[in-house]
Design goal:
Shape: globular
Strand content: 15-25%
CATH topology: Arc Repressor Mutant, subunit A
Structural class: alpha+beta
Order of helices and strands: HHEHHEEEEEH
Bound molecules: zinc ion
CATH superfamily: Winged helix-like DNA-binding domain superfamily/Winged helix DNA-binding domain
Radius of gyration: 17 Å
Strand order of the largest sheet: 1-3-2
Helix content: 25-40%
CATH architecture: Orthogonal Bundle
Largest sheet: 3 strands, antiparallel
Oligomer: single chain
CATH class: Mainly Alpha
Length: 144
């Protein structure tokens, strides 16, 4: 994506254009896995924590990112590729967490099963698959 595409994306989600927002978006678009707040802090050290934190939250509020709870104790954040808006997120995809590299990935082509629970109101549901990701799997291949 080009600089102008990021600008357009921010505009479409009713966000003012700032350097930090552009840099954070770029970071998410240039990696194939979800990022934690710590990843952003480490990689975008020009910005202070508060600015990064606010940026992250504004992206969640405006439907650009979604939060992915997982067992690492640190939430990961993934890009919304569906048509999420400031009104609501629509996610029903499965996530994968690699036990070796710790990366969390969105699997947009796989959907969480719908569970019909009479007398209960389900507000959120997450399905995280744990295992070995394709990058780590390649590294595990024995070299002959
Ligand atoms: Zn979303
Ligand atoms: Zn891995
Ligand atoms: Zn996701």
């Amino acid at each position: 994506m080009k600089y102008s595409d990021y600008k357009k994306l921010l505009k479409n989600h009713h966000l003012r254009i700032t350097d930090c927002r552009i840099d954070v978006l770029e970071k998410f678009h240039s990696t194939d896995h979800a990022l934690s707040f710590k990843d952003l802090e480490d990689e975008l050290s020009d910005y202070d924590r508060v600015t990064l934190y606010r940026t992250l939250n504004s992206f969640i509020d405006q439907g650009l990112l979604h939060r992915i709870p997982n067992d690492s104790g640190m939430a990961a954040y993934g890009l919304c590729r569906e048509d999420c808006t400031e009104e609501e997120h629509h996610h029903d995809h499965v996530h994968f967490k690699c036990n070796l590299c710790g990366h969390v990935e969105c699997l947009p082509n796989y959907h969480t099963p719908v569970i019909d629970l009479p007398n209960y109101d389900i507000e959120e549901s997450y399905l995280i698959l744990n295992g070995v990701c394709k990058n780590c799997k390649e590294e595990l291949q024995p070299v002959s």
